[in-house]
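As a warm-up, study this chain.
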Amino acid sequence: AFQAGDLTELTQVFSNILGDILDNATTLTATTVAVNAFNRTQTLSDLYVSVFQPVSQIHWPGNVKKYRVNSEGQIVDRNNQPAFDSQSGFFSAGTSDIWSETSNDGPSVALGGAARKLPSPNSRRLYTYLGSNPSNPALLTTSEHAFVEANSDITDELLGTNPTDDPSRAKLIAWARGADVDDEDDDGDTADARLVMGDPMHSQPAIVIYGGTTSSPNIDDAVVFSTTNDGYLHAIDARTGEELWAFIPRELIGRLKLLYENPSTASRNYGLDGSIRVLKYDVNGDGIVTPSDNDRVLIFFSTGRNAEVSRYYALDVTNKNAPRFLWSIGEDVLPGLGQAWSAPEIARVDVAGATQNSQKLVLIFGGGYDPIEEVGPFQDENSVGNRIFMVDALYGTLLWWAGNDPDADLVLDRMTHSIPASITVLDLDGNGFADRMYAGDMAAQLWRFDIYNGRDADELVAGGVFASLGSYEEASHPAADTRRFYYAPDAAILQLNNGPVFMNLAIGSGYRGHPLSTSTHDRFYSIRDHRPFAKMTQEQYDSWAPIRDADLIDITTDLTPTIPPSANGWKLRLDQPGNDWVGEKVLAAANTFQNTIFFTTFTPDENGGGACSLGGGRNRIYTVSAFDARPAIPRRDGETDPSDPNDPPLPPPTPEDRYDELSQGGIAPEVTFLFPERDRVVCLSGVEVLNACTNFNSRLKTFWRESTAE
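Now compare it with the structure written out below.
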């Protein structure tokens, strides 16, 4: 309890409460691991973690830190000491990340990591691109793209500065390069480095292993790419943690002045908030990026939840020290684009009659998020984001799109709700070209599409609603049934006991726009597509009756359910234990591994703690059978020996056996899997190593022969 005698004291009390809540570091994105470029069956043991600290100003401090998983499955620091604190659910005090030069950065966002390895402002390689999309990739290392005071193209008008005001153009440019222009450290030097990064709140780092040279392979020759809400794309040396260069898009330059002033704000402000996707085109498959062999590395990223700017960007980073600008696209190319949440999926699609790159490489992504969804009730229709786009990966040109717009290549009357999630894209016949897509939308509709490669755009794709699991068909749209899909369905081909093969689609609902909401009765779904390989025509899609929530078997309290082979799937109500709806929801993508579905859930704190703070809610990790949702890990009621015939039998399973409570607060990210060595699997959520992978069998090498191979 707090006492306040007047408005001033009351304001101070709330400020103190807010400060206590915000005085923690956290992460909302999955940890990033790199696949071994020289052995694709293994991941490396290095972990890269995005961290940030919520504050009440525009700028939130952020960082990228590096840790390692040891042979015992523990996350360890630079001194090989356990780095995870099971009590806080975050890094332990007194530990240091691998890039750190101190001995106790631990849970601190500001200390250690890449932020403390930023170059001197005078020598920092900071770039931008101010023109229209180039006809050929533009080398950013030339003077016209340097973000420096000498570049006259960076004008007062572009920066929003004025020669008579503070900050001046020169001062703001120096500040953007990292200079401590206001002597915040009080050392009398206004040219030294501030050593500050913005927050990578929703952006997971991406790793590219360049692999050294053919004559001298080097697995440590790698770059970590990370975007932040200060509007920077950082390229970081994976070995040292030092920034190689950074890039600021033109559209975000005008936001630098606001970041410098850093006013208090009641709402979150975003810059580059979308996840990064990497296209590494290795011609001979040797794991080494060799430009002379026509190897290419392209990266794609977006503004994510930025409400003012909605765009996608592409850079050619084949030379890790000499990036090239490829393109930037927004509503000028993508009609009806919402907030650019959907991370682009890389695939090959052959569009007849279209100008494409020689490899037919495309990006496929949802139309984005319509912020009208923040208001709570069911929306009859979204004005933006209710689209799916396919663009050329090299040129950024629109090749195909779907929507309820008569100008779309595929006109779908039911595509009335935005699609902020990524699209699940599959190559089912193994010919190198995508032929199936699945997507979820803000009305909890699950879409299925078939791609007919080699056809014109207007006949390229057939599709429709495969399942409708919210209140789309209901007349009144009650809040309890207003479910939303913010994440892509996880697709897995399954077969039980030599029965029919089906595509399992694992997806959970949850109101990410309001994670503290408790009004919706959310579910986790396992939907079966009994036509996993057969394509459907548009006429078949138009006549398809979507699977409804009532058509699925409710296994919530049935621990030994019988799921007939012909069943549409099962559903798990998120009201356990005790059939109590307290706002538990799915706020991360699911993953299927060895016939087991892994997914995390978030339940808001009864006292209303913030979802972005470490104490702001409870998280669970579910591990259930993909076939019938039975608990994947049997529980016992004490220290018993299953091999002892006198040992008491296992107790009957309960709904609680499907999940473990996680230590971490905030919103737990999806599960990440590591394969650091033969016969070892490590899985974690954020920086919390899970017990769920300990009983998995070894991976087996599989051989096959294609009779048509030449």
